[in-house]
């Protein structure tokens, strides 16, 4: 059975909330989880390590195409060391295609910057009347026309 993923507003408890007013793009999706015992980092590592093959295929296509215009090759979402314990991650460490920017038990912020845009992703633990869940929020600030062109192709993929 596939987990139910729903589109929601960026939660008020997320530290990314203050970046929405001038964002070029943002979205947020909620995923119910079994228990709230794991940290936001542990949940993120679990989620990213299970990236579907088609996502990594698209990342490979992305990396090939953007190399033509001088953008970074980010690798794959699931490029995570499975032997590295969650407790040993520090600010600045790479997790998949992102750098770890902020870390608490309730929320992590991942991000990357390049000449065309800055992206931040929050994985935030929540509990409400429906039970424990995580909210995965993405906020993008573009720097130029290349960033806007890039997001023309990437933004629709976020819905998938």
Summarize the structure.
With about 160 residues, the chain is of the alpha+beta class. The protein is built from 3 helices and 7 strands. The protein has a 7-stranded antiparallel sheet with strand order 1-2-7-6-5-4-3.
Number of strands: 7
Tell me, rounded to a whole number, the average pLDDT: 91
Report the β-strand fraction as a percent range: 25-35%
Q: Indicate the overall shape.
A: globular
Residue runs with pLDDT of under 50 for 5 or more positions: none
How far is it from the N-terminal to the C-terminal residue, by CA? 17 Å
Q: What order do the helices and strands follow? A: EEHHEEEEEH
Q: Give me the side-by-side strand order of the main sheet.
A: 1-2-7-6-5-4-3
Structural class: alpha+beta
The biggest sheet, with number of strands, parallel, antiparallel or mixed sense and barrel status, is: 7 strands, antiparallel
Helix content: 25-40%
| Discrete helix count | 3
Gyration radius over CA: 15 Å
Architecture overview:
This protein is of the alpha+beta class and 160 residues long. It contains 3 helices and 7 strands. The longest helix is centred in the middle third of the chain and has 15 residues.
How does the SSE layout of this entry go?
Layout: E1 5-7, E2 25-32, H1 40-49, H2 53-67, E3 94-95, E4 98-103, E5 107-113, E6 117-128, E7 131-142, H3 145-159
Antiparallel strand pairs: 1-2, 2-7, 3-4, 4-5, 5-6, 6-7
List keywords for this structure.
160 residues; alpha+beta; seven-stranded antiparallel β-sheet
